[in-house]
């Protein structure tokens, strides 16, 4: 399989539902089916939104397997496989490949604060250990380090490095990365609110939190962007923007899980140190859902 796969459109960074302290397999599988039925273009289990930091390795493996079993090849599955330990990231990536994932999403190592050379060697080690595409997850607000365009360009020369989930908050990066690596480097926005600008700068899609709650609208928005209908995309942006904002009033994914509980998709339970959202946030999320036509 060639690693330089095209990933396009709305990819949902799936929440991990919990029930009685355990992962809620039934709710998770139902969520996968609903997402696909609503037009989501791809699924990303066990990322930040999937509360991967508080899942055991066994739970992490199960969620990836359930996602793949339930999706049955209908849409690509990009499995979260990040860690600030290179060995652990390799183990997670190898499991994802064995389970049948289409690609892995690997975050820049948080907390350790490696140099650019350390980043290169981390991703090269994962690249050398698997045979499926790797999407680099660059999220300086959470990982404290920022992968430079130069480092990304070096990595793109390796056979499995296929693109980036860009959560730098800087839409200009899309143009800089496009200039350095060309249009075949998959550029996926990691920020719902900035996706409109990111797409206009040459992005290919979004790994979205909002699409947990509004999968059809997010897929329609991406479809507009991909055919350069930015007037149509702007109308959808106006509809979705309060939701993009409300879902980040408190730490993700607590607001998204509350919104999903309103829709009857899963419990709002999160694992410590995450806590359920405050009443004020609930009100804001409800209001944003009404604005988007998702709730009465």
How would you describe what is shown here?
The strands form 2 sheets. This protein has an 8-stranded parallel β-sheet. Strands 2-3 form a two-stranded antiparallel ribbon. Strand 2 and strand 3 form a beta hairpin. The termini are far apart. It has 296 residues and is an alpha/beta fold. The model has no long low-confidence stretch (mean pLDDT 97). Helix content is 46%, strand content 13%. It has 12 helices and 10 strands.
Q: Helicity range of the residues?
A: 40-55%
Query: Which structural class should the secondary elements be placed in?
Result: alpha/beta
Give the overall average pLDDT: 97
Q: Largest sheet, if any?
A: 8 strands, parallel
Global morphology? globular
Strand arrangement, major sheet: 4-1-10-9-8-7-6-5
Our estimate of the beta-strand percent is: 5-15%
How many helical stretches? 12
Produce a short descriptive summary:
This protein has 296 residues and is α/β, with parallel strands linked by helices.
Task: Offer a few descriptive terms.
296 residues; alpha/beta; eight-stranded parallel sheet; two-stranded antiparallel sheet; 12 helices
Task: Indicate the topology.
Elements: E1 9-13, E2 18-19, E3 22-23, H1 25-37, E4 42-44, H2 57-71, E5 78-80, H3 86-99, E6 103-107, H4 116-129, E7 134-138, H5 140-143, H6 149-156, E8 161-166, H7 172-181, E9 186-189, H8 195-200, E10 205-208, H9 215-226, H10 230-246, H11 254-262, H12 279-291
Helix pairs in contact: 1-2, 2-3, 3-4, 4-6, 6-7, 9-10, 10-12, 11-12
